[in-house]
Amino acid sequence: MTNSSIHTFGCYLQLMGKVLSWPERWRMFHRQYVKDLTQLGVDSIGIVLLISFFIGAVICIQMKLNIQSPWMPRFTTGFTTREIFLLEFSSSIMCIILAGKVGSNIASEIGTMRVTQQIDAIEIMGINPASFLILPKIAALLTMTPILVAFSIFAGFGGAYAAAISGILTPEDLTYGLQHDFNEWYVWMGMIKSYFFMFIISSVSAFFGYTVQGGSFEVGKASTDAVVSSSVLILCSDVFLTQLLS
């Protein structure tokens, strides 16, 4: 198993060497980049807003009901909600969720092109298929990273306010908690981690799709492997990055 993992990692590095090369035809790269920007980034805004809004409401309610006590300041609920979203949810957890949507999309698209020999046709035309297909997806996801993270944070705060309006605590206490002892570095730390995670999602998913062999069954298996591997790598790298950036 160790030899297989080392071999897979070596193949991944070789593929990234081909991907991270200067685009041969900028017009084709730009067209593919805009397409991936819409398909992978813009189309993900809705699910990010929806999940973040309801998770923000749930966290606020849980903090108030299970942690808040007469012995704690009234702003504890808002303060805890903010820290959870800035430090972990809007970066790590949201990227794991996107790995299921975006990662499976990338792996299945490239995998289908591989089994239908479209990638071979691109290579015969004298174009680097790895750079042509994968680099725009990586660039598109990295471009959308700060937008998705910002939307997740504000949607989560919006969900917390929606929960507060229901009567569990006053909006004033929530606002004070969200503003209390604010550390700007936490926002930047979440952004930095998200860039690493988005690169993992796009590159690992593309690798599994690009190297698929067989038919439609193998494409589905590659899509599943891409999501699982991306999620595990995000969790492992989250531990390392949190220690490094804290």
Present the secondary structure layout:
Layout: H1 2-19, H2 26-41, H3 45-66, H4 76-115, H5 118-124, H6 129-168, H7 171-179, H8 184-210, H9 216-245
Helix pairs in contact: 1-6, 2-6, 3-4, 3-6, 4-6, 4-7, 4-8, 4-9, 6-8, 8-9
Task: Tell me what the structure shows.
This protein is an all-alpha fold and 246 residues long. The chain is 85% helix and 0% strand. It contains nine helices and no strands. The relative contact order is 0.18.
Mean pLDDT score = 86
Specify the structural class. mainly alpha
Order of helices and strands: HHHHHHHHH
Give the CA-based shape: elongated
Give a concise summary.
The protein is mostly helical. It is built from 9 helices and no strands. α4 (76-115) crosses α7 (171-179) and α6 packs across α8 (184-210).
Name the features:
246 residues, mainly alpha
